[in-house]
Amino acid sequence: MMICGLILAAGVSSRMGACKALLSLRDGSTLLSAQYNLLKNAGCESIAVVVGANNKDIVKAHEDLDVIWVENEQWELGQFSSLQCGLDKLLKLSPPPHPSPLKGEGLNVVILPIDTVGVEGKTVEILISEAQQDENYDAYVPEYAGRGGHPILITKKIITRSLDLDPKNERARLDFIISEAHHRMVPVDDKGIRNNINTRSQWRNYISQSQEIFQIIR
Fold first, then answer.
1. 208 Rama sector, left if φ>0, alpha if ψ -120 to 50, beta otherwise
2. pLDDT at 217
């Protein structure tokens, strides 16, 4: 089993008014760096980052980051198109360990949107552990207080199904695909899986209630 990480950071961040991947932490690093470290320290062997709207600025600011850069030239089509770009790249770089008619066999991907902030490392470790111990599911979704969130670990059929869909299709959404597949909800004690930050107001509210080292956008 190969575990890779996939960070989705291709959006224009219009509601935020600033590139989310470049949001500064008090130690001078960025949100993207923090998300990379989260996945790497939890056990992801390699990590791909999908960029689009702000690709040049993001890559330039992270020249020393050991990631696989993936540019989504059609980022305007939405996050699902970025997911497809990332999965396709990881499949090409990570061939199955043995011949198999099932595309994606052996590759497992932990998907983390750049704006899901505050996730604990142990949550990613739990998802990876669950996938390693029980390979009978096609996706592993963290659940806090009865609700699912991110990151999500996907395998086999989910990867195949995601790549087969037209990103313009109304059913081209990861939650729809997972709901129709054999998936497992994994209870975690981590409310961070529900932290989706899209606006300056949400960012400020999050920071004021957390002990993280993020800076408030002014």
1. alpha
2. 41
Answer whether residue 215 is part of any domain.
no
Other C-beta atoms lying within 10 Å of the C-beta of residue 135: 12
* Residues with Cβ within 8 Å of residue 160, at least 6 apart in sequence: 102, 103, 104
Instruction: Supply 118's token pair.
Output: 């505050």
Task: Give me the CATH number covering residue 15.
Answer: 3.90.550.10
Cα 61 from Cα 4, distance rounded (Å): 22
Count up the domains in the chain and report the number: 1
The two beta strands, 107-113 and 2-9, are parallel
Domain that holds residue 93: 2-208
Chain centroid, CA 36 distance in Å: 10
Question: What does the pLDDT average to over 107-115?
Answer: 96
Question: What is the rounded average pLDDT for all residues in the chain?
Answer: 88
Determine the Cα–Cα distance for residues 29 and 38; give it in Å rounded to an integer: 13
What DSSP string describes 67-114?
-EEEE-TTGGG-HHHHHHHHHHHHHHHS--SS--SSTTTTEEEEEEET
